[in-house]
Inverse folding.
């Protein structure tokens, strides 16, 4: 099982005509959904509200196959993200978080210990920004990283917490991660003096086993201890990019899961890394081709892979 930690929230998306629509979202929420749709046993560890939006989020998770055994519920209002999508489909967010559900994940809500059935822990986005959730998840990683693969997707959200404090926290979690998946813009913020390839080298030098960098329409780059791989992205008509990075990370982890490669030593070769990156890029592309964070199901991935290789 893969445990996905962090926030579930509601995206309020501008329709372009002055109205808004509410959609379930949040990086960890999207990642958990994407993993479950790809057939990976998945559990969500986060704080959900008992309000109407909270029930919508929990219902969506369970309907798509995500376990809520590690989730907690409370009276706080659901966290809201206001998404502004530009003409090219890229989204910018403003977060309404004060006193809301996602941030109120505390140490007391963590399981005493994650069992042997857990193969990996995934975290990032607001999960490492908002307190007390951020400190809670840092403590979880510190406690569990020797026993489980940790995959970090920082999905950087500057300006919410003090940037220096936030950057230091991310570097701390990077040092305890097995896999770091980040966009090139994430790495530009974390390592402002170097390009993404040199940033990946610095992360590897710190003991991380694998660095995966998303490059948008240019594809993705993977840096392993022993080799480097770059792949192109499939071409699609982009509706918007909401949830594309989350779908990429989930699909990459799902490929590792399906090939029994979720191990501390990450013993994969260059061809296997290329295949995992191609699979992840396809999941991201299919997500971009439809509105909102709507990651593909396993059958869709299989059908599209067969079509492209026929």
């Amino acid at each position: 099982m893969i445990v996905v930690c962090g926030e579930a929230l509601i995206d309020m998306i501008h329709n372009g005509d002055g109205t808004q629509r509410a959609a379930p979202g949040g990086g960890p929420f999207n990642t958990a959904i994407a993993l479950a749709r790809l057939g990976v046993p998945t559990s969500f560890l986060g704080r959900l509200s008992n309000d109407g939006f909270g029930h919508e989020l929990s219902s969506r998770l369970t309907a798509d196959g995500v376990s809520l055994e590690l989730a907690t519920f409370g009276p706080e209002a659901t966290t809201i993200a206001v998404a502004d999508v530009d003409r090219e489909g890229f989204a910018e967010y403003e977060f309404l978080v004060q006193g809301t559900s996602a941030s109120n994940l505390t140490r007391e809500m963590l399981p005493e210990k994650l069992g042997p059935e857990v193969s990996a822990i995934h975290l990032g986005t607001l999960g490492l920004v908002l307190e007390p959730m951020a400190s809670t998840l840092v403590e979880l990683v510190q406690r569990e990283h020797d026993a489980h693969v940790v995959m970090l997707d920082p999905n950087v959200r500057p300006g919410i917490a003090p940037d220096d404090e936030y950057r230091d926290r991310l570097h701390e979690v990077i040092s305890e991660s097995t896999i770091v998946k980040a966009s090139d813009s994430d790495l530009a913020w974390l390592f402002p003096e170097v390009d993404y390839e040199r940033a990946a080298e610095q992360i590897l030098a710190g003991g991380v086993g694998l660095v995966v960098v998303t490059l948008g329409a240019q594809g993705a780059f993977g840096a392993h201890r022993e080799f480097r791989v770059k792949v192109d992205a499939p071409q699609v008509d982009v509706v918007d990019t909401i949830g594309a990075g989350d779908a990429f990370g989930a699909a990459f982890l799902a490929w590792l899961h399906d090939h029994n490669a979720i191990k501390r030593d990450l013993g994969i070769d260059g061809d296997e890394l290329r295949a995992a990156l191609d699979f992840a890029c396809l999941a991201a592309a299919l997500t971009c081709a439809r509105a909102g964070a709507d990651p593909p199901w396993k059958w869709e991935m299989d059908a599209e892979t067969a079509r492209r290789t026929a």
Summary: The chain has one domain: 2-309.
